[in-house]
Amino acid sequence: MNNLQALVRPNIFRLKPYSSARDEFTGKAGIFLDANENPYGSLNRYPDPYQRELKAKLAAYKGVNPANIFIGNGSDEVIDLAFRIFCRPGQDKALSFSPSYGMYDVAADINDTELIKLPLRDDFQIDTAALSPYFNDECLKLIFICSPNNPTGNCMNAADIDYILQNFKGIVLIDEAYIDFSEEISWNQRILDYPNLIVSQTFSKAWGLAAARVGTAYMNADLLHFFNKVKAPYNVSQVNQEVAMDALDDLATYEQNRTAILQEKKRLKAALKALNFVRQIYPSDANFFLVEVNNANELYQQLIERKIIIRNRHKLVNNCIRITIGKPEENQALIKALQGLQAEMMV
Ligand code: PMP
C-alpha cells in the first residue's frame, strides 16, 4: 500500500512494539519458565497474543484468510485503535454520520481528535454530495460507516460505500456489528479490493456473547500489522477466546437463536404497527427497531415504571425510541404494556 506511511501516525509507524514471552517462543511443548507465570492452576498461562486457533475457525466460517483477521476486546477496541493508529491528537480528524453509534464521539474525544458529524439524509442514507468536499481535507484520516446503522437500523447503500472507498484516500471503517441480522453481504469480502478498508464485526450481538467481549476486524495484512503493534499484548483473554471458539463450534445454536430473533422481529413489528401512538417504524436490517411515537419521553418513562427498559433516542431523532428484539415472552410483555398504555391513553 503506497500511502500507508502518510496515513499512520509517524510515532506508530516507527513504533517498536512490546515483545512478549509468547512472541519470542511460540511452541506449545516444553517447560515454560519464561513469562513469570505461576506454574499452578488452569488459567495460569498467558493466552496466545494473536488468537491463532480462534482466527483459524473464524476464517473458515467467514471465508477470509486468518492473516486478514484482527480480534479485539469487543469491537469498541477496534474503534479506539483506529484513532490511536491513524489520528495525530489535536491535529487530524475523523468523520462519522449522524445519528450513529455514540462510541465514535467518545473515542474521538479520548484521542483528542475532531469528529466531523455529517447528517444522514432523511432516509438515513449517506449524503455523498455533502461528503465529497471533505475528501480533499488532508487531515481527515478516518471515516466511520455504521451499516446496519445504530440507532436507525438500516444498511447503507452499497453504491455509496463503493463511491467512498474509491474516492477517499484515508481509512474507511465499516462497522458491521449488526450484519448477521441483515441479508446484505459483508464488506469483509472486499478487503483485498480496497487497501484502505477495515470491516469490524462482533460476537456481542447475533452470537450472544456481549459479556465475553470479543470483537473482530477484517483488513489487509499491511494495515493489520499496525493493529498488532498498538494493541495490548494479551488483549483477548483465554476465556474469551474459548467461548468464541465454542460458539463457532455450535453453529446450530447460533442459527436457532438468530432465526428466533428474526421471527420475533416480524411479530413485534406487526404489533407495533397496530398502536395508535406509533407514527412510524423505520426499516431495520438489525435486531432492533427505531420507532417514532407521539411522545418518546413520556413513553420511555411509562415503560420504566412497568420495569420495561427501552432506549429513548429522542435527542438523536425526534420522538424516537429504540427497541431491541427480546425473547418471545419479553416481547409479549412489551406489547401488552404498550396496548395497556394505549387503552388508558397514557401516551
Ligand atoms: N458498533 C456498534 C454499531 C454497536 O452498536 C456496538 C455495541 N452497542 C458496538 C460497535 C460495540 O460492540 P462490542 O464492543 O460489544 O463488540
Detailed description of the structure:
This protein is α/β, with parallel strands linked by helices and 347 residues long. It has 2 domains: 4-249, Aspartate Aminotransferase, domain 2 (3-Layer(aba) Sandwich); 252-346, Aspartate Aminotransferase, domain 1 (Alpha-Beta Complex), CATH 3.90.1150. It has 13 helices and 11 strands. The chain has helices at residues 4-7, 10-14, 21-24, 52-62, 75-86, 103-110, 128-131, 158-167, 221-230, 238-249, 251-273, 296-305, 328-343; strands spanning 69-72, 93-98, 114-119, 140-146, 171-175, 197-202, 215-218, 278-281, 288-293, 311-312, 320-324. The chain has a 7-stranded mixed sheet, with helices on both faces. Strand 8 (278-281) and strand 9 form a beta hairpin. Helix 4 (52-62) runs parallel beside helix 10 and helix 5 packs across helix 6. The N and C termini lie far apart (56 Å). 37% of the residues are buried. The chain binds 4'-deoxy-4'-aminopyridoxal-5'-phosphate (PMP). 4'-deoxy-4'-aminopyridoxal-5'-phosphate is lined by residues 74-76, 101, 146, 150, 175, 177, 202, 204, 210, 215.
